[in-house]
Amino acid sequence: MRIKSQKDFFAGLMFSITGAAFAIGATNYTIGDGARMGPGYFPLMLGIVLTILGAIVVLQSMVIETESGDRIGTIAWKPLCYIIGANVLFGICLGGIPKVGIPSLGLIVGIYALTFVSALAGDEFNFKEVAVLATVLAILSFVAFVWLLNLQFPVWPTFVAG
Amino acid sequence: MDLLANLATGFGVAVTPINLLYAFIGCLLGTLIGVLPGIGPVATIAMLLPATYALPPVSALIMLAGIYYGAQYGGSTTAILVNLPGESSSVVTVIDGYQMARKGRAGPALAAAGLGSFFAGCVGTLILAAFAAPLTEVAFKFGPAEYFSLMVLGLIGAVVLASGSLVKAVAMIVLGLLMGLVGTDVNSGVARYSFDIPELTDGIGFIVIAMGVFGYGEIIMNLSKHDDDREVFTAKVTGLFPTKEDFKRMAPAVLRGTALGSALGILPGGGALLAAFAAYTIEKKTKLQPGEVPFGKGNIRGVAAPESANNAGAQTSFIPLLTLGIPPNAVMALMVGAMTIHNIQPGPQVMTSNPQLFWGLIASMWIGNLMLIVLNLPLIGMWIKLLTIPYRWLFPAIVLFCAIGVYSTNNNVFDIWMVAIFGVVGYAFLKMGAEPAPLLLGFILGPMMEENLRRALLLSRGDWGVFVTRPLSASLLAAALALLAVVLLPSIKAKRNEAFVED
Question: Which residue in B264, B238, B240, B283 sits closest to B373, CA to CA?
Fold first, then answer.
């Protein structure tokens, strides 16, 4: 059988797998019965429903004709990796990784790191321009979040601030 | 009269110089961010939520109301100017609004949207004030079975109006419900699906999901297209105000839109989308006056009616939230989150336990509306300039604000890892054509639904019949079924597709 809607096929597959995972996970908890539901009852029910819904979506994707085949298309790895990477780097700068001995570098360093890495996700990258943007964002964030709203951040690296 | 006394209490609380300032700042920030292409009210509120943490509850909610209206109006601005609906409810505004902008009539279009919204907001506020109290009485009659059925109705309502595949939307809701169950089970104290990670025993943060799925997912999707596909249209806007003739055509459309929006907004799950869509359909059915531009070619009624309906619906959708504690759409779900952060559990008890807050909020919504018109009419020219900021400067800033917002909710880096995961998930959703909005609704309602289902069945000793034998619950479920049936009927299905496709 030919897949007529690629998007729906994978969406359905995702629903079924997630649903099944939740349902199987639910069996680790007490299920109970209708009158006295255990923590596993509701998730088990929903998990089964989701698995079935996913199967319906998959079936539909093989039966119902679509014009273009609803292709998923190529995955944009470049923006995906850089945007998510920038976010993760920002987290590392704020919190450090105590296990490997990387100290917290603080908000300001984090903003520069995030801006530079995320800017790489775009079509063009101009070092000077990004540096200006990062500086503007750092000043803005410092004034707005640290100064005015008084949110709690490690602002500077721990080895500087002590 | 109670209504007037209550409104007076509300305005007494809301109209202090400092609160007016917060309303103004909220509105300004909301508009500034909402006007950015691709960022709808949900993302805007999620992003700006941390900014309200430090404020006292009343001021925080007032600022949020300002942000909400600002974001919604900002979204319409983008819809009209650059043909980019920032949210589903401005999908119909795009049709005629963008055509007006292309003819250099962006000014009148924006003014029509603003004035229509303001009028609708005023009416909505009055309806909210008048009907919130009696509806609260009804709310106290609600047992767990009714709550459960109402949530089913709300969720079905949300799905029915979503564009695209119905089964997929239902599946997204169920997925959301399941994700809402992650964390400690309140009845047994068992930590479910937490994989022994301490942070997960508190559940997944809704901001984390909102930011990851809506914020990062969208950005990655946008970046995967190239500059020429992200067409941004910035023609010079000539003439700010509608002509006399425009006003004559607008007025009845605004009235019809307001009436429709107010009525539909009250229904849980009805939401702004149905209101805007229905209002546009009605306008299209009316006869064109001689010399009037046809619909789809830049008719001012095609902007005024859905925008009024949208705003009236937004206003009255606070009714199910404030009286029943049930968020009717994703934006309201975020408002619930905001309230819980300030230790306010939305529901019928808010009005009695915290009348100042309740009426203050209602008054502040009107103030938010007023601020909107004060702020936006003179500044339309500036919003257009903001749109000329190149996307390559914009998206790192958005990523940064998302990351900071997520971190500051718990001051915990763990949330940053989570948002990274949901960013990937959100991109996958977009790639698979699965709409994320129903997921967020399900996520918020998940724990509540389970709680009420358990209680209802405990009281009935495990008899599932309780949902159909109690009249109120049965009628709610019947309404949900009717909604589903309506959408599944082939004739309406075709119309629904048509409405979302034409442009």
Answer: B240
